[in-house]
Specification:
The chain has 89 residues and is mainly α. It has helices spanning 4-12, 22-43, 50-58, 62-80, 84-87. The longest helix has 22 residues, at 22-43. The two termini are 19 Å apart. InterPro entries: Isoprenoid_synthase_dom_sf.
Amino acid sequence: MPGLAEAFAYVIWDKQHFPDIQFDICWFQNHVNDILSFYKEELAGEMGNYTGGRARATGKTVQDVIGETIVLADRVRRTLGDGPVRDAW
């Protein structure tokens, strides 16, 4: 659903306290499902998935593409710190 990640990111974490985190949260939310379903789709011979397509288009490995999302998730966790704000993540 387009726009859902943005709404989630901007409503839960205010821009005043976390001005640089919205992009990372949106990226993660928009791509984590593609990563989780990648193996199943590859086994079924589906070539139209984001993860495989990005790997082919950029000349990266699938692991590199997945790694980019992991880096974003780690950055979000560090930025949010510990406590209720991170628990919302």
